[in-house]
From TrEMBL:
Localization in the cell: Cell outer membrane
The gene coding this protein: cirA_11
InterPro entries, A to Z: Beta-barrel_TonB (IPR000531), Beta-barrel_TonB_sf (IPR036942), Plug_dom (IPR012910), TonB-dep_rcpt-like (IPR039426)
Family membership noted in the UniProt record: Belongs to the TonB-dependent receptor family.
UniProt cross-references to Pfam families, sorted A to Z: Plug (PF07715), TonB_dep_Rec_b-barrel (PF00593)
Lineage, broadest ranks: Bacteria, Pseudomonadati, Pseudomonadota, Alphaproteobacteria, Caulobacterales
Chain ranges of the TonB-dependent receptor plug domain: 50-158
Name under which the protein is recorded: Colicin I receptor
Length: 864
């Protein structure tokens, strides 16, 4: 993007800010009860006023979070411009993105681009940090690379969550919630002194809700007729120990468990394979005229179960020791966490019983982390300094499985026949048979008697196991030098070293793989048979059709070359990350800053079956991702410090961007040579002179694009046709504009009562929800609106909330996918538009995981 275009965008945002100043003119001569100075953050691992931190930070107070009904990180996105959070085939496959950049969460081999930190403890995958957050003190969303202080996997940003600590003042709170979809929840908390030096806090919650989807189950064995329900409970216990004035120790233990059904998807476009699905007795959404896009629906099809069970537990201990003689504090933060999850899946998203996973532990993963961080931070008149070290040991155990249903072989028979354009569709066992001559196979394909070969046995499939161990160590320092009373320079540097080892076994169960083996053995005969049956085809067309046929039979889960395949890989790598920032305070109200930051995301292994053509790839390794980021910002505190207006220009360049994408039959990881994002962030807060009335919001303009690349730039050039829409295009999940706005009102109305109101909205321009950028995956511009009205006692002993989320019932896609085995979108040759995509040849059925519908209810809260 040209710089002058960015400057025009900056000017547009500034005009909005000037308009806001006009609205707050009446506040100039008054001191409101709340000012910008009250906004405190720990973005640099020390408490500072938001306006003194040279970082883009969206800070959300406890009041803002309560008013917007934030219970988990997904709820957070309505308050944060430039941030999106999506889930796909399970709640573990959850991804947070900032400024259009994030890592798809379906594969635990990939670490996150957006770090999630809860009470100082890093959650190494987004999906393991998406539970009930409990009692919140505040949340800080830090945009841009934060590797110096928060570590290697924060190349796009950090979500820093701070929960309520124990108090020596006794307190109790409880709440009961009921809403539509039969939603109900109970939560309670108690805090207070145990001894003169020890305080405790205990929080527990239980929540349930019916599913958002109606599910057609067909012949089963699935019985559940709704999906994406909620059923979990959580508990967090804490101790705050103050053995002396200079020492504080905070101990936290937490546990949560979920037992739910998630996640089905709905057809957004049904392709020509609908005829094959119905021919074998299956059901799915009937196609629209001309196989066009379908109207929005929450009706899904699945004959197999989607049960998911997740268990999350952890311990942490944070000790802070003041050293008065050094004017410094030593901090030790230790943690242990264990997360495990299993779930079932209907992989064809129909009732045809093609391919599935069972929720018996055969699909899921377990993640165990041990971490230790040491920090020593202090200050002099001219220097704020910090040094530290971080160590972690992580273990991942992943189980993966696919099982054939009764419909797989007949479906493949009809599918192959349709691709061969035969009047009498072929059976799979005819193609894979040991026919001695091409004519023998032709006879079989046309229905004549011929040798037959193996098909795909019902209940057979694959069962793979992966085990990865990671050991990391890092040393870091972050220092701010006060060169003058107005000019500060911050220098940060971190060195991280990772050692990762992957071992695995890929195994076919029973006779699985025999069908592919038969097809590979008869490849030449199949080509000859195609030529005889289709005499008008050229040799190149015959070869392409034969390769397509064999490739369809030899998908990764059916390939005998994976049978009993042993995997053992290890790599070691180190990387520096760091930052340099200069900030200048023009006066008490305005600070400007410029910064450079370098961040990285660690290398890893794709824990999946990956093949080039029909040959398994020799290595599952993918390299580290790096980012260089530049920012220029202006932080304004105006009108007796009642107004905050922050503006930032950013320019980020990612190299070897780790793209995890589903190509219809497998997830592949490719390192895209370059991804850039450039734009403007703007945030404002206005504490008005009207008692209890405040406004806040923000705007992000982000031009996030893939760089130009060709097939030879990819790890596996054979993936290029499916990624040919990416070069030079806007990145997926990257709206050009996003904006948030909130208004909060809270004041006394007499008779010992007070009234509160909160309204939050988020607008996003259109964006593509697929990693391959196919047109059917485009989500139109949308607006989400949440609201809450509260009536309660002035002393806050009780309150009744009436609330609603997605009040306008906006219908939108989170993520769209290619339905497995159901058509194809890309062609085998380059099309006139320079890519491998031609709308006229798109036969793909598309499914989507939809966003939540309108929900509403009431919550009664009591406390003392």
């Amino acid at each position: 993007m040209r710089l002058n275009h960015i400057l025009r965008c900056t000017a547009s945002v500034a005009v909005v800010g000037v308009a806001a100043f006009g609205l707050v003119g009446a506040a100039a001569a008054q001191d409101g009860p709340t000012t910008v100075d009250d906004i405190i953050v720990t973005a640099q691992k020390r408490e500072q006023s938001l306006q003194d931190v040279p970082i883009v930070v969206t800070t959300l107070s406890q009041e803002a979070l309560d008013g917007a009904g934030v219970r988990d990180i997904k709820d957070l996105q309505i308050l944060t411009p430039g941030m999106t959070v999506t889930s796909t085939q399970s709640e573990t496959a959850t991804t947070a993105r900032i400024r259009g950049v994030g890592t798809v969460g379906d594969n635990p081999g990939l670490e996150s681009s957006v770090g999630v930190v809860i009470d100082g403890v890093y959650r190494s995958r987004n999906g393991v940090g998406f539970g009930d957050l409990g009692e919140l003190s505040r949340i800080e969303v830090l945009k841009g690379p934060q590797g110096t202080l928060f570590g290697k996997n924060t190349s796009a940003g950090v979500i820093n969550i701070i929960t309520e600590a124990p108090s020596f003042t006794p307190g109790f709170s409880a709440e009961a919630t009921y809403g539509n979809f039969n939603a109900w929840g109970l939560a309670g908390s108690i805090t207070g002194p145990i001894t003169d030096q020890i305080a405790g806090r205990l929080y527990v919650a239980k929540r349930q809700r019916d599913g958002f989807y109606d599910v057609v189950t067909g012949p089963g064995p699935r019985q559940e007729q709704d999906d994406q329900n909620q059923d979990f409970w959580t508990a967090r216990g804490q101790l705050l120990i103050l053995p002396s004035d200079d020492v504080s120790i905070r101990l936290i233990a937490d546990y949560s468990k979920r037992d739910e059904y998630c996640c089905v998807s709905t057809q957004v476009r049904t392709g020509p394979t609908y005829g094959i699905i119905t021919a074998i007795g299956g059901q799915q959404t009937p196609p629209a005229p001309g196989f066009g896009k379908l109207p929005f629906s929450r009706k899904a099809y699945a004959n197999r179960g989607t049960g998911q069970e997740m268990e999350d537990m952890g311990l942490s201990a944070e000790a802070n020791i003041d050293i008065p003689s050094w004017n410094a504090t030593f901090t030790s933060l230790s943690s242990w966490r264990n997360w495990s999850g299993v779930n079932g899946m209907d992989l064809d998203y129909t009732t045809a019983d093609l391919l599935y996973r069972v929720d018996d532990g055969g699909y899921g993963f377990e993640l165990e982390n041990l971490t230790q961080e040491f920090r020593l931070a202090g200050a002099t008149d001219r220097l704020d300094w910090l040094v530290g070290a971080f160590l972690t040991r992580e273990s991942i155990a992943r189980e993966d499985s696919y099982w054939y249903g009764a419909g797989y072989t007949p479906y493949m028979s009809l599918l192959l026949g349709s691709r061969l354009n035969l009047t009498n569709p072929a059976a799979v066992n005819c193609v894979t048979g040991a026919g001695a001559t091409p004519m023998g196979i032709v006879g079989c394909l046309t229905g004549a008697t011929a040798p037959t070969g193996p098909g795909f046995g019902v209940g057979q499939g694959v069962k793979d196991h992966y085990s990865q161990r990671t050991e990391s160590i890092a040393f870091f320092t972050n220092n701010t030098v006060k060169l003058t009373d107005k000019f500060d320079v911050t220098l940060g540097l971190r060195y991280s070293n990772d050692h990762k080892r992957l071992i695995g076994v890929q195994d076919n169960v029973g006779t699985n793989g025999a069908a592919c083996g038969g097809a590979l053995g008869n490849a030449g005969a199949i080509g000859g048979a195609i030529g005889i049956a289709n005499p008008t085809l050229t040799p190149a067309q015959i070869q392409a059709l034969a390769s397509t046929l064999v490739g369809t039979i030899c998908l990764p889960w059916a390939n005998p070359q994976f049978d009993n395949r042993r995997i053992s890989e290890s790599n070691n790598g180190g990387e520096f990350s760091g930052t340099i920032k200069g900030s200048y305070r023009f006066n008490d109200s305005v600070m400007g800053y410029a910064s450079y930051a370098h961040g990285y995301k660690s290398f890893g292994y794709n824990m999946d079956r990956v093949q080039a053509g029909v040959t398994p790839t020799s290595s599952l390794y993918f390299p580290s991702e790096t980012v260089n980021s530049y920012e220029i910002g202006l932080k304004n505190t105006l009108f007796n410090r009642s107004v905050l207006l922050n503006l930032t220009y950013f320019n980020q360049k990612f190299e070897d961007f780790q793209l995890n994408t589903f190509l219809g039959t497998a997830f592949v990881v490719e390192s895209i040579p370059e991804v850039t994002t450039e734009g403007v962030d703007a945030d404002f807060v206005w504490f008005t002179p009207v008692e209890g009335l405040s406004f806040s919001g923000g705007v992000t303009y982000a031009d996030t694009k893939y760089g130009n690349f060709v097939a030879s730039d990819l790890t596996n050039p054979a993936n290029f046709p499916q990624l040919s829409l990416l070069p030079g295009a806007r990145a997926s999940f990257a709206p050009e504009w996003s904006a948030t706005a909130s208004v909060a009102f809270d004041r006394s109305i007499g008779a010992g009562l007070k009234l509160g109101m909160n309204l939050s909205a988020k607008y996003s321009t259109e964006f593509n929800t697929g990693s391959d950028l196919l047109p059917y995956k485009m989500q139109d511009a949308m607006t989400l609106l949440n609201g809450r009205i509260t009536l309660g006692a002035e002393d806050e002993n009780w309150a009744l909330d009436i609330w609603g989320q997605n009040l306008t019932d906006e219908e939108y896609m989170q993520v769209a996918i290619n339905a497995p085995l159901q058509g194809s979108a890309f062609q085998t040759t380059v099309q006139p538009n320079g890519t491998y995509y031609n709308p006229a040849g798109d036969t793909q059925t598309y499914n989507a995981f939809m966003g939540q519908p309108r929900t509403y209810g009431m919550t009664l809260r009591v406390r003392y």
